[in-house]
């Protein structure tokens, strides 16, 4: 299903997974995770349940880039989250989340290569934070920021193989709750990777 057009992005978006009720107006993208929606393959050996999915709004940028947005989550239950998401295959994807993890807003990352890992980065005051995903060659980088100016390096990784066809965009989740609303504003897309992944730029 075709998603809303975002003038900040030089590529079209398409909705994936359950209905996210995605809409865009006045510079703000909004979406909603339904009850018990998630995107996670447990590393403990359990398999991904067929219903284990979450609303995603994704497109295919070309070349190296930076995609950033301020993410605000209407937290209602543990692990409710809004995320930037990278998808390279059914079992090759990653998400950078602002997540209620489980009782404090936290910047979290998940990288899935067959099974998912799960790592908390740092806690956040309030219900908003800036998130950024960058592509640099074969690799992707995750950064987060309290103000959209100084960026904290969170993670550098690959998803295996050629990352050029990867889809990138937005995700909402509510793994154990009854759903939550997610808002993305200050959305910005810039060609090229950061000059330095670790100097705050």
UniProtKB/TrEMBL annotation:
Annotated protein name in UniProt: Regulation of enolase 1
Xref: Gene3D superfamilies: 2.60.120.200
InterPro entries, per the entry: ConA-like_dom_sf, DUF1349
